[in-house]
Amino acid sequence: MSGTPLPGIGIRYDLSTREQRRLSVVAHRDGSRTLSAYREDDPDACALSMRLTAGEAAAVIDALMPAHHSPNLLSTTELGLVAERIELSATSYWNGRLLGETRMRTETGVSIVAVLRRAEAIPSPGPDLRLAGGDTLIVIGTREGADAAAAILGRE
Q: What's the burial of 146, exposed, middle or buried (CB within 10 Å: 0-12/13-18/19+)?
């Protein structure tokens, strides 16, 4: 994404999607926004342009990135369960220790259903799995349990 100052108006932000579609947002000084999408066959021709009030822009932002969203959150259920990714840092106390030593299920109630390591997935890891910095643990449990698991695994 790039930003271009528009003197007296605001700032224009341009971005190209993975599919090479162009979008731009002009952030006006009064808080309103102009959202524009460009044609696929002619990236210089605007296919859609709409002006949004500050409140409408905030509603779109909330729809695109809800306040309860976490980039680590994989999913939630109506039962109150979450599936989340927790990355183990190289400086973590648990780097090099066995998964069972964390006592994760006993302490937090979450289950570690997989460990992602480099390009490998380790499903249903056992307590004898040695953790390594850079591992991503996939946990399932309550929101509170997942937060507690992240705190435990973040210990240095």
A: buried
16, amino acid identity: S
What is residue 55's three-state secondary structure?
helix
Q: Is 154 exposed, middle or buried (0-12, 13-18, 19+ CB in 10 A)?
A: middle
Three-class DSSP category at 66: coil
Cα 44 versus chain centre, distance: 31
Could you give the maximum distance between any two Cα atoms of the chain, in Å?
63
Q: Which residue has the tokens 């605001």?
A: 10
Cα 61 to chain centroid distance, Å, stands at 14
Gyration radius of the chain's alpha carbons: 22
Is the distance from CB of 127 to CB of 100 less than 8 angstroms?
yes
pLDDT tens figures, 18-68: 888 899 999 998 888 999 999 988 878 999 999 999 888 888 877 776 655
DSSP assignment string, 114-153: EEEETTEEEES--TTPBP-TT-EEEEEEEHHHHHHHHHHH
Q: What is the pLDDT of residues 70-129, one digit of tens each?
A: 555 555 666 778 888 899 999 999 999 999 999 999 999 999 999 999 888 999 999 999
